[in-house]
Amino acid sequence: MIVFFIRRLGQSLLVLLIVGLVAFSMFRFVGDPINNMLGQERTQADVDRMRVELGLDRAILTQYGIFLKKAVQGDFGVSYRQGRPVIEVLAERAPATLELALVSGALALFFGIVFGMYTAIKRDSFIAKSIMTASLIGVSLPTFLIGIALINIFAVKLELLPSFGRGETVKIGGWTTGFLTRSGLIALILPSITLGLYQMTLIMRLVRAEMLEVLRQDYIRFAWARGLKERSINFNHALRNTLVPVITVTGLQLGSIIAFAIITETVFQWPGMGLLFVNAIQFVDIPVMAAYLMLISLVFVTINLLVDMLYFAVDPRLRVSGGKG
Fold it and tell me: pTM for this structure?
């Protein structure tokens, strides 16, 4: 188990370094930040001086090495646009994104498992077929179109929910939360549904497919023959053995919620890290883009590592094989 963890951790660090290098190399194709920072009356001397001050005159590998060295110390540089440390800018936007991702992930996981189990157990019922038909919306329609449709229905026509913003927030220490205010909770409804709908339908279909496969196994028939209760068979036997492949996809999807929050935050003008990243691209704010991409990579790598560890907790066969290894 320890050897497995160390090996996975080393692979995760290598992935982080490669992803960061690729992203850092692509920044030079986004644009030149000097053109945005200096006015139209700039001179070539001003451009050269600013390029040297920002370190943009150095090779990509050198820039990336300096960035990593400072990042380990918690210094991600200064935002070209705001003139403030990037870590402060991200810390201000992180609560909005994390709360949106938390609510979206909880909704996707809960309803995905519940609907997946129901459509597998009651697969011939009218409700189950209706749920499967409706799930095609979440799979086929793009996120931004779902968001616009929800805004048009619930904000414009029905005037029940806000169409943009985070609502009123409360600051607790260095964390701003909308969970403690009515407007903050209401503002979460449309963005969280938009962001979590695709993940929910994917989890639901995966749970349904895996559970249908498990319900056909011999040990399930043996459990019925023993006279066990239906609830015990569905939850203690079928669902438990369904969770192993579900954990993999669910973990990756929950990680992608934070990464793909860019679209949802743009549609709803949600003041999170995704909207910050979009603005950083427009302004060619390289420190903000680099810090954001490294953060997203860290989230994915961490979730992958946790998923691998959860295998040992869910499937006893992996613990036995891991112990022998």
Answer: 0.80
